[in-house]
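re: that complex we talked abt at group meeting.

here r the seqs, copy pasted straight from the sheet so there may be weird spacing, ignore it
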Amino acid sequence: MSALRDHILRVGLVLAAFAIGATSLVVLTENETHDKIIENERQTLLNAINAVIAKDQYNNEILADTVVLEANNQLGTNENSIVYRARLNDEPVAVVLSAIAPNGYNGKIKLLVGIAFDGRLTGVRVISHKETPGLGDKIDTKKADWILNFKGLSLSNPNVSKWKVKKDGGEFDQFTGATITPRAVVTAVKNSLLYFDAHRDELFVISETEK
Amino acid sequence: MNAIYGPIIRDGLWKNNPALVQLLGLCPLLAVSNTVINGLGLGLATIITLVASNGLVSLFRKQIPDEARLPVFVLIIASIVTVIELSMNAWFHELYLILGIFIPLIVTNCAITGRAEAFAARNPVGPALIDGFMMGVGFTAVLVLLGAMRELIGLGTLFSEAHLMFGEAARGFSIVVFEDYRGFLMALLPPGAFIGLGLIVALKNVIDARETTQVQTVDPVAEPAAS
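got the structure back, here u go
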């Protein structure tokens, strides 16, 4: 019995030694890469934000000027999302909202929507999607420029009733062979504009009380 | 000494190729082989993992208790993959954003545990390193070949998005083979991966069979009458 116990103990100790060695390797690497990874993630986020709002339009620390929105049906979000606010010399310039088009051809399409203080779009980008390669993925700037056309549009240009793809009687081009994807994106962008229209002041003001 | 390396190299690249003969590691192979660059990226990460895990397993083969060898192998492989994942995230962030979700899959690539068990645990460090490298190169070659087939048929390009791996200077690497190509979706979706791999395995078998018949024709063996 004690021979068996010794054996278990010996194998266990060897295993523990390997565990300590392996853990050291992982922890040392984590320690070495930690700051760089945080910086990379920050830069990736900043690049995404600067794609929807040009960085010469604002001069505040946009990643720090945020407000947290609860899950919202109009934006399609089902968990808290962060709104980034651009200001130029403390005057509000634009917000960057996260919106989700829930009705893509193949699930959710996550968008970043930049809206200027006057209600015009400063830009829209797709953050992630699972649309069909070669058809619906033209919403991605890597594949086509379609999504750039949103820049400058607002709820009065075109009229809110025309915020549909052409097939549904609206103003927006669909793609050959894919209507569902652009329809979902157009609707999500329109809803973001409607949300902004109804909540503009609180979107900018909340931070003033925080400050 | 050199006499043993020859068979190791031949095994890894052709005779016992992990992707074509052992059919191990299909999960990352099929998932990530939709373009050349994706295939190459995962292939390189797999080579590094295989060399490091074979090296470490072989180095400690006398200390690893036989009854606890699998837990130790898993520990070693999982740590190496974590180190690679963190390093990629830190220094190749763009590529990490694409391959990131597939890197942890390397842990489950049975080719790696397979080599640890079948080779590294029984051989000195030198041959174990060569074996890991050659198996990795064999695996990568199939990944890149399959990626090239699928990208060419699916998108009509080769080496698209090379800048994600080689930096901005590599933007020019991308070759548009067919201008104005409409694309062939199936090649990019999972069925394309299965069909493509099947074709490569078949091609290898044809080449092997031809070699065998050439050897046989030297022998004056009567060929069975074709019916």
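couple things i noticed - Chain B touches chain A at residues 60, 63-65, 67-68, 71-72, 75-76, 78-80, 82-83, 86-87, 89-91, 93, 97, 154-155, 161, 182-183, 185, 188-189 (CB under 8 Å). Residues 2-215 of chain B form one domain.
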